[in-house]
Amino acid sequence: MTKAVLTTKVDPTYDDRPEERYHFPRTYLRQVEAAVRDWIVYYEPRRTTGDVLSKGGRQAYFATARIDGIIPDPSRADHFYALVSGYLEFERAVPFRENFGTYERALTKEDGSTNKGAFGRAVRNMTDEEYDLILMAGYSHTLGLAPRQRPIGDVPEEIHPGFGETAQAPYEVDRRIVEQLVSRPFRDRAFSAAVKTAYADTCAMTGLRIINGGGRSEVQAAHVRPVADRGPDAVSNGVALSSTVHWMFDRGLLSVDENYDLLIAKSTAPDTLSRLLVPERKLRLPERPELWPAQTYLDYHRRQVFKG
């Protein structure tokens, strides 16, 4: 087993759904096979689509997952699906190159320039140490290494009690981070940080944004499709809500339609609920469309949770 980097675009050319599967041609079969039953990181390139002129991608690692197995694509010869589990987005996207260099050593030549041949491969195997460094950069707040990143001018979120000051990458590798990836408390903290950042610490249904005296956001991260019902820890399965609205959303008093309009279960919700919601009665969404609640999860919430 070995770790790997899997490249996927915002609007993928292949049939990728990162929280569930990764679609790839036979060219990369050996590299993906080497990572079966091990962890990978997802990388978003500069190009956002298959168009060679497209741009705007973050050129950053954005999530991790575990490859459970590989199956052939039944409709396309010489193509395969890597089936994944344990998907968890980073609380911050990690650039492939930071001030100390690249996280993947193979991406840098001896003269310090980028190895474009290696960089151009959509699947790349990597060492445990390289993987751990990316995770520590991606989950630095969850691990207590740094305040959570906020828009410029905002008060930084306090570091978790018991940890020291902000660490400068590259971090000292701590192998225990991999063990924490399957821990529910760790995953909840990482998911919460990623969702809060995507929604700029603002409740998507009330428009309220409250930061307490310690610099901590009062908004909460809600799963649209619950984890207990196989909902992933993906920002596209999350929404930032104030505590009261979060409680109502989880109990089906509130939901969201396919146009992101707010739905109220009028037979069970209190009459005063409408006063709490934004006047336009429309979910306030993150800037990046790929972080908006996915239709498949919203549909599940309306069918299985909503009491309207």
Automatic annotation (TrEMBL):
A Pfam family the protein falls into: HNH_2
InterPro entries xref list: HNH_nuc (IPR003615)
Keywords of this entry: Endonuclease, Hydrolase, Nuclease
Molecular functions per Gene Ontology: endonuclease activity
Span of domain HNH nuclease: 203-257
Name of the molecule in the record: HNH endonuclease
Species annotation: Alsobacter ponti
